[in-house]
Hints:
The protein has 89 residues and is mainly alpha-helical. Helices cover 84% and strands 0% of the residues. It is built from three helices and no strands. This is ABC transmembrane type-1 domain-containing protein. Keywords: Membrane, Transmembrane, Transmembrane helix.
Amino acid sequence: MKSLMTRRLAEAATSDDELISSRPVQRFVLSSVYVAAPVVVLLVGWELVARLGDLPAALFPPLGDIFSALLRMAREGTLATDVFETFKR
């Protein structure tokens, strides 16, 4: 009888330890979703407006064009200068 009770207490303690140690992970995942979800919604909305809307491409270019331009500017070395000039205004 004592060994059964000891074993059940040990199992309960182990499950509590697992529960406590998993809570920070759950909080991290949940907070990451709260941060990432609006960004994803914004990017998807931007892409939909760029592809399906009647707005000029100069105002709403597709995301692929934006990222291509950023990579090109980074390779050419003009990205940092342009960002600095933008923030200087």
